[in-house]
Amino acid sequence: MRVGFVGLGHMGENMAARVLAGGHDVAVHDLDRSRSAGLMAAGATWSDHPAACAAGAEIVITSLPGPSQCEQVVRGSNGVLSGIGRGAIWVDMTTNRGQLVCKLASEMKARGAATLEAPVTGAVDGARKGKLTIFVGGESDVLAHANPVLETMGRVIVCGPLGTGNVTKLVTNLLWFTHATALGEALVLGKKAGVELGVLWEAIKSSVADSFVARHDAPSIFAGHYDPSFSLDLCVKDLALIMEIAKSANVPIELGQLVKDRFERARQEFGGASAELLVVKLLEDEAGTDLRLAGSWPKHWEA
To answer: H/E/C letters for each residue in 272-288?
Structure first.
């Protein structure tokens, strides 16, 4: 299929590579053209703006930092809306505000194009290996047409109509951020109370405390780089979207608010562009210890 892919960040570049490896004809665009070098070497073509990337494509994918960037890429000058053709499908893989996706979908429909939302989880290594989980909201017949492209990137979970994909993704992120914060507390507490850090980690993985976060993210804490492939700005953005959903649904999520407060404090302390797991270093500093553990800890976004 002819695919236009806009947004080549840590996730997008690897996702586009999987689509290309799946045998599809891929055109790419990003604000930073240098990010396309590897993809172009593998056979992708460059587009000077989102409209050009969308022109002639059967599937147009956007993978962007958040709602404001998505709106600009779709509606802005030389945006996707001005280039997408009748019968094409816009697939937004941004972790986004569901209401915005629905509004943009109406504008796409006026152009004769359909819409799917498909935010993802699974980190950069999941994107690189084609093992993401993709939370899709939209009509089943539209998904049936886009599935050959989506399945190159990972497993599709059908969530329901437009809007439900982002709710599902953000609910999983709520648990991710909560687990990361709690994991830091548990490791600091156990170490300060006299248990060797490696023993603690093995105990967590071999007990009811086990989780994806404990296995995947703890090495980034032990290594001391705290995973710069996802920023504190993005964490706080997602937590704000989560709180919007909670308010709209009239659900008091007090624990979620506490987690959001901790991430906001970490952003104030270390800067918004800094690594996501610095929320754990915040506690390390407060407790007067560190969670460095000797070992060979591969950087999952480079391995």
So the answer is: CCCECCHHHHHHHHHHC
pTM over 0.85: yes
pLDDT tens, residue by residue, 182-214:
999 999 999 999 999 999 999 999 999 999 999
Which pairs count as long-range contacts for 132-135, CB under 8 Å and 24+ apart, including other chains?
Answer: 132/15, 133/157, 134/93, 135/159, 135/165, 135/166, 135/168, 135/169, 135/172
Mean of per-residue pLDDT scores for the chain: 97
Domain 2-161: top CATH class: alpha beta
How do the domains of the chain map onto residue ranges? Answer: 2-161, 167-287
pLDDT at 20: 98
Nearest partner of 176 among 228, 215, 130, judged by Cα:
215
Q: Which fold has domain 167-287?
A: N-(1-d-carboxylethyl)-l-norvaline Dehydrogenase; domain 2 (1.10.1040)
Query: How far is 239 from 269, CA to CA, in rounded Å?
Result: 18
Buried b (16+ CB within 10 A) or exposed e, 282-297: bbbeeeeeebebeeee
- The per-residue pLDDT for range 8-58, each reduced to its tens digit, is 999 999 999 999 999 999 999 999 999 999 999 999 999 999 999 999 999
Q: CA 201 to CA 59: how far, in whole Å?
A: 43
C-alpha 221 chain-centroid distance = 20
